[in-house]
Amino acid sequence: MAWILLIIAGLLETVFAIALKMSEGFTRLWPTVTFAAAAASFTLLSLSLRSLPVGTAYAVWTGLGASGTAVFGMMFLGDPVQVLRIVAIVLILAGVVALQLAGGGAH
C-alpha cells in the first residue's frame, strides 16, 4: 500500500508543478487553487514514509515528479524534445528502480 501512496504522491507532484507554471506567477486563480495537489502529495509521501526508507521514498517522489513534469512539458507546453532530455528522464526512472531493487522495499 505504501508504494501505491508514493506513486500517487509523485503524480500529484507533477500536477503541482504544472499548476505552478499555468498560474502565471499566481495571477490565474484556477491553477493557483490546484496547489492543493501539493498538500495531498506531501500527505501521501508522509504516509508512505511510515514503512518505506526515506531515501528511497524521496527519490521515487522527486523522480516521478521531475520526470512527469518534463514529459508533460515536452508533450503539451512546447518544451524542447531532445534525445538527451529523454535519456535523462530514462536515467532518473532507472535510478528509482535501482534504489528499490537495492533494498528499498517496505519494512
TrEMBL record:
SUPFAM superfamilies on file: Multidrug resistance efflux transporter EmrE
Keywords tagged on the record: Cell membrane, Membrane, Transmembrane, Transmembrane helix, Transport
Annotated localization: Cell membrane
Transmembrane segments: 27-45, 57-77, 83-102
Entry GO CC: plasma membrane
InterPro entries: EmrE-like, Small_drug/metabolite_transptr, Small_multidrug_res
Family: Belongs to the drug/metabolite transporter (DMT) superfamily. Small multidrug resistance (SMR) (TC 2.A.7.1) family.
Protein name: Quaternary ammonium compound-resistance protein SugE
